[in-house]
Amino acid sequence: MRIRIGATSDIGRVREGNEDSLLVEEPLFAVADGMGGHRGGEVASRVALETIQRLFEERTGTLAEQVERANRAVFERSQLDREVAGMGTTLTAALFEGTHVRVAHVGDSRAYLFRGARLRRLTEDHTLVHRMVEEGEITETEAETHPHRSILTRALGVDPAVRVDEAVVEVGGGDRLLLCTDGLTGMLPEARIRDILGQIADPQEAADRLVNEANAAGGVDNITVVILDLEESTGDDPPSTATTVGWAPPTPPEPGAVPRPPARARNRIRLAITVGIVVATILVGLVGVRLFLDSQWYVGVSDGQVAIFRGVPAEVAGIELHSVVVETPVDAEEAMALEIYRDLDEGITAADRQDAEEIVERIRVDVARAAAGGS
Ligand code: MG
Known about the structure:
Blueprint: E1 2-10, E2 20-25, E3 28-35, H1 40-58, H2 63-80, E4 88-89, E5 91-97, E6 100-106, E7 110-115, E8 118-121, H3 128-134, H4 140-145, E9 165-170, E10 176-180, H5 182-185, H6 190-199, H7 203-216, E11 223-231, E12 265-266, H8 268-284, H9 286-294, E13 297-302, E14 305-316, E15 319-331, H10 332-336, E16 348-350, H11 353-371
Magnesium ion binds at residues 33, 181-183, 221-222.
């Protein structure tokens, strides 16, 4: 099989830096969408992709294991370097193995298979709104424009361990694979993405068109697109060393970019994992726990008010693993009356303090909107 590649990463029209990264290292391809203030997102996505690339070259572990190691690498870096504390990243990787492609995935970047004019999503978003769709609380269409669609339930680098989704899909000549960050899917409906993939044969042209249209639609986020076209090898084409065409290097990130505040939080799944890890960590050493807890932030309820906490919303052996940092004037009961915040008392995890403050602000706005007559 021969692979023709189109790839591009664009800052978009609103962000001041590009926190997305991409990896094009046939037969391994990946996109990552970093988050976390003060260059954190940029570092997180880059460290994650560099790690899987290195492990792949060393032939260490399976793709899913490489992604787990990338998680660990981002997590450790964020523990060591205050400048990037609390950073995280999505990661969606595709590894071609003969007649199959193996997809490993964490977060809300996506992999799609375009075949015979149909676009099939190969990954599941690890987002709060996806869970709400699964539970029948909102429709798929509502999810596309939901104000909280970027709240992740899983990301790389946030905890010492992460669960990686993996899928293996049979592929053949004529198939087109798309890897992209949410800067594309948040701007263009899938029907439009499908049409462009169907209309433009050249993978680089198609990638550029997708980015241009996402920018024309607002370009509110960084946009990264990798398109992989599979062609049956001709007789003299060695299958595993196929040449690549149409590949252009990604736009380098803006130097000295102003950090974009993180706009994401993770929720209960992550908390459950966190608590498990905290329990294990306590057995290892209280100093480690202290450092770990100091780096954790969440939004919860204190004395009937929405509050920002440091630590995790749990207690172990009667010891509370958190402390209130700020009690806000926002009434917790009014917030929890809104479907999306109904579990607020269990805590909404934040990447850092700034992220926690942003979550509070979103809650405040939503509560005010509901009070003003919104549903
Ligand atoms: Mg993004």
